[in-house]
Amino acid sequence: MSLISIKINEAGYDPGEAKIHHLDFSIHKGELIGLIGANGAGKSTTIKSILGHIPFLEGEILFKEGIATAYLPERPVFYDELTLQEHINFIAAVEELSVEVLNNRVTPLLKKFQLTNHIHELPGTYSKGMQQKAMFILALMIKPDLLIIDEPFMGLDPIATKIVLEMIMEERNRGVGILMCTHVLDTAEKVCDQFVLIDHGQQLAYGTLEDFRGTCSLPGASLFDCYHHLIADKGHE
Ligand SMILES: Nc1ncnc2c1ncn2[C@@H]1O[C@H](COP(=O)(O)OP(=O)(O)OP(=O)(O)O)[C@@H](O)[C@H]1O
């Protein structure tokens, strides 16, 4: 059984103005799905639809009962007045995590992301990469079953990109289902199990890179080449 099944017929911000017209895919345990598409194609709107942030939705988003879902937005969001420690304490209180569980989960994450010495600072004053890492810590604290990540590599240097990528792979290996929206196709090609290609709010393709190669009749082609082939086929490039 999938962790989440997504069937969207129409979704949008205003009635009668659908930005998403057809989407149908699911995410299983330990599966990393790459959500790819051009600027304005509808990736963030898809994520917002899944999270219930879109006012108009016709379709069905089915979550497996009892799963914990974490969302990492494209732009990190923090409370201006709270230090990282206070953010951690706040989430721990809301999620009713014991001090022991908290320490077991958070201490290694802080160490891994080299934020231990910055825990009493305001995350709003961190660099972009540090903010992204802090968001990961806050998201992973709850040990999610499903992780939804919008553009995780934006603004990260190669070292931070590697750390974030390793973190994503570790979570996947732990059995977490992950939906990752990204423009970084060479990275997506290396790590994602399947891809959903969105174009003008429609699901143009859903499958593995091998499926895409078959559809395009391009054996051995890169995700980048398949992407352009599939989009050009629709006359949208
Ligand atoms: N808050 C909003 N209100 C109305 N329309 C919106 C809103 N946010 C996005 N849109 C529109 O919805 C469509 C899809 O945008 P979306 O942000 O989902 O694209 P995207 O694939 O995430 O693009 P990018 O790669 O640039 O982030 C676009 O036509 C965009 O103008």
Automatic annotation (TrEMBL):
Keyword annotations of the record: ATP-binding, Nucleotide-binding, Transport
Gene Ontology molecular function terms on file: ATP binding
One Pfam match: ABC_tran
Origin: domain of life: Bacteria
Start and end residues of each ABC transporter domain: 3-225
Protein name: ABC transporter ATP-binding protein
Taxonomic lineage of the native organism: Bacteria, Bacillati, Bacillota, Bacilli, Bacillales
